[in-house]
User: Fold this.
Amino acid sequence: MSSAPTPQRSGLAVVGGGKIGEALVSGLVRRPGAAEGIVVVERSPERAAELVSRHGVRSLDLAGAAAACRVLLIAVKPQDVDALLADLAPHVDTGHLVVSVAAGVPTARVEAALPAGVPVVRVMPNTPALVDEGMSVLSAGAHAGAADLDEAEALLSAVGQVRRVPERQQDAVTALSGSGPAYFFYLVEAMVDAGILLGLPRALAADLIVQTALGAATMLRDSGEHPVQLREAVTSPGGTTIAAIRELERHGVRAALIAAIEAARDRSVELGR
Assistant:
């Protein structure tokens, strides 16, 4: 390990070519000229070749990526983090910025595995980064300063919105927005099935629900109104919507959703231990 920052390092290495790693790469390379500054580190040669072919990035081993890149984005599964950090530690110094998107893994665990003083930022992104509509939430570790947070935020803002929170809130963030796309996909799946049950062709049902979901999300974002107000505007006395809402409440959908998000939070805490 070198003891001083290395000025010639630049660019980003995405360590881990799984779903979230590729989602971030896919979004980042859409910026003009960005692909030249991005490398991927992937254990599987076949997967590495696939990422290189698909996104126009370079592939390096871990030591090569650390030598070339200032920002190292750790995108492996939580259960693989400790082994990865042990391999990475000899190649990292305080001139790097380590950004971890491993769900549930606290910055203290990352810092303990790396040389003293290496700045670490913890991030919870989500897969809509694939379409530049991601939600990324970041927290600073013990050695990450304002400039490190700014650098991480600038990186992630290329693929969507970014918020900053104290690290103690990250498990809740993981449960809400990190896992959140799956909840919406699950609801859309159920609604499409309902459309088919009611006699609509699958493709038409899917088109109706996807556009409805997109329109509803845009209204939530742009109207400034509370979700209750928007729902009530659709809910006429004695009409179809209130009949549907009654059934949702009767089946405990609200309570089930809250319980599901709590379960995701608890699992995030477990993964970080």
